[in-house]
Amino acid sequence: MRQLVSKCFPLSLGGTHLQQNLISSARASESKSSNLLLQTGLISPSCAGMFHFLPPLLRSIKKLEALIDKHMLDIDGQKLQLSSLGPKWIWDKTGRWATFGDELLTTQVSGSHYCLSPTHEEAICSVMSQYLKQLSHVHLPIRLYQTTTKYRGEAKPHSGLLRCREFIMNDLYTFDVDEQSAATTYQSVCNMYDNIFRDLGVAVIKASAGTGVIGGVMSHEYHIKSDVGEDKVGFCEKSHQAWNLSNMTLDELPVDPEYIKEIKCIEVGHTFLLGSHYSKKLDVHYINKNQDTVACEMGCYGLGVSRIIAACLEAMSSENALRWPLALAPYKVCIIPPKSGSREESMNTDLVNELYDLLHNTTEFTDDVIIDDRTNRTIGWRAKHANLVGYPVTIVVGKTIMDTEPKLEVILQKEKDSTNYISVPDVVDYLKKQLCFRSNK
Predict the structure, then answer these.
(1) Where residue 305 falls among pLDDT bands split at 50, 70, 90?
(2) Could you count the other beta carbons within 10 Å of the beta carbon of residue 40?
(3) In 211-336, beta strands by DSSP E
(4) Which among 309, 307, 337, 304 is positioned nearest to 323, based on CA atoms?
(5) Strand, helix or coil at 155?
(6) Dihedral sign for Cα atoms in the order 365, 370, 371, 372
(7) d(CA 84, CA 116)
(8) pLDDT digit string (tens) for 315-351?
């Protein structure tokens, strides 16, 4: 079945009075991503700090999840799903029921206390404490990950998906035999994160950071530069080292202050080398070659999936139009047919569907093409909406299709929009070349 704009973007057409009131109150933000996601109907407000994800945005989220899954295979990551509810007794073992404070959302079921997990160290350790009893040192390392919804009692949610109470996160937990092996795993995961952001075509800053309530012996954060970012990072232009400045000043950094620059950023990922902090408390042990019981060396790693998408949009979009990393665009190509009743429509009744099938049957565009079927609207109106949504490519079937040599109007959403007129037989090869160039830029 062909993808149609009228079915995929219904909330961008107005919505109910209640929806508009919710959107208006949520849109009072300095965040471009928040305002534009609301305006295009890609998210719909539920309540303060919580949003419904509409079909096009969910496509983008699933694309990012698939990209992460692909890279997890490179480090032998295995996917699992942990329960969102964490029992109080196990959080008490690590002391984090108290230390998380009001950010921990709690509930009570049949007299027992639980939290909606903002992170899953306790949960994964409860699994591994049983799992590793059946295994020995020869089975390590083990690397387990999930992509799931997390919860945080954010006191003042703002900026849409950048600071909210419910969000999608990918978290990875690793188990090694000793400190050296754990450090090797840590570097492998950091390299994997670098590769993910390189595939997205987004520049990130890797900054040394404190371990906070997660704990451990070392951590790094991944940041995307943004004027609405809440984190301040000290970046050395000479060594390309960076530090989170939440617990230090520029003068305290171990480099020549002449080369240091303070940058506002959005945190999109965090890596922790945990040591045996959790494994000792929660009985995550293995049997070594001498038949001794030894606590595992652990690491935990997180990518803010929904936040990465918002941060990319924040960095790439204008005030008036979304711009996506090619790999995350909900659809790569939007086809705009002629207006109903126009001469162009009467002369080219089958061309739009033929063009859709041609692109859909090309590997690079399979399931990534959408038709703006709102043909009661002018081509110009729909082209403006396509620009707002930020499709990497918009193809207009308009007046030039009636020329002696029929051509399509192809609009490429790069740093500046560019329009080219391409013959129908050449359009696939043209787009392959243009999009591959853009994705490797």
Answers:
(1) very high
(2) 21
(3) 218-225, 231-236, 242-244, 260-275, 285-287, 293-295, 297-304, 333-336
(4) 309
(5) coil
(6) negative
(7) 6
(8) 999 999 999 999 999 999 999 999 998 888 777 778 8
In this structure, what token pair is assigned to residue 112? 């027992």
CA distance 385 to 398: 16
Beta bridge partners, 227, equal none
Q: Tell me, what amino acid is at 304?
A: G
Give the span between the Cα atoms of 177 and 279, in whole angstroms.
12
Burial letters 191-216, b for 16+ CB under 10 A, else e: ebbeebbebbbbebbbbbbeeeebbb
Q: Report the DSSP beta bridge partners of residue 207.
A: 221
Residue with tokens 């830029």: 441
C-alpha 147/C-alpha 71 separation (Å) is 13
Instruction: Go through the domains of the chain in sequence order and give each one's CATH number.
Output: 12-316 (3.30.930.10), 331-439 (3.40.50.800)
Give the rounded distance of the alpha carbon of 253 from its chain centre.
30
What is the average per-residue pLDDT within 232-239?
A: 94
Radius of gyration in angstroms for the set of CA atoms belonging to the chain, rounded to a whole number: 25
Q: Which of 208, 212, 207 is nearest to 223 (CA)?
A: 207
Rounded distance between C-alpha atoms, residue 143 and residue 163, angstroms: 29
Label residues 64-103 b or e (16+ Cβ within 10 Å = b): bbebbeebbeebebeeeebeeebbeebbebbebbeebeee
Say how far residue 103 (Cα) sits from the centre of its chain: 22
How far is residue 275's CA from residue 181's CA, in Å, rounded to a whole number?
Answer: 11
Closest CA to 328 of 60, 17, 39: 60
Tokens of residue 275, six digits: 């040591």
**SS3 category, 251:** helix
Strand partners, 369: 333
